[in-house]
Write a structure and sequence with these properties.
It is built from five helices and eight strands. With about 170 residues, the protein is of the alpha+beta class. It is elongated.
Amino acid sequence: MNDAETRRPQGSRAAVNPRYREQLDRSQSLRLLGSVPLGRLVFTQNALPAIRPVNHLMDGEDIVVRLNDGATLTSIAPPAGEAGLVVAYEADTIDPRTHLGWSVIVTGYARLVADPAQVARYENLLRPWVQQTMNGVLRIQPDLVTGFRLVAQPAVAACAADTDDR
């Protein structure tokens, strides 16, 4: 990507009406998370926050990602039977023009998948986007799931406007 690709197009500072934030429940949030293939994995590396973009799939409520040979998470994630590593996972879809969309953040425990049959299944279902040797599978079990949608007007106001027109 070059600098021209990251600059704002002329006129992109046009005024946008205020956006409102509507909270999503757990089920809505996880459904939206499953509707996109890419998110950001947040973990601690050398006592500092680290973020990696990864592609994922949903297995029930769990988020599954594959790890490459040199991935920090491969070396710091505890084995499948242990408590797990606390991580966050975030994905979103927000239109840069309209400023409408959604964002979901999951916090939970990540464990390496050890069962060879499950590893093989995930390797078939989840193809990495980068050309690297992937030799680990990480399963994130959500504890805390938060999500919101950015909307042009709150649902309550939209309903009131609809009834005012009658």
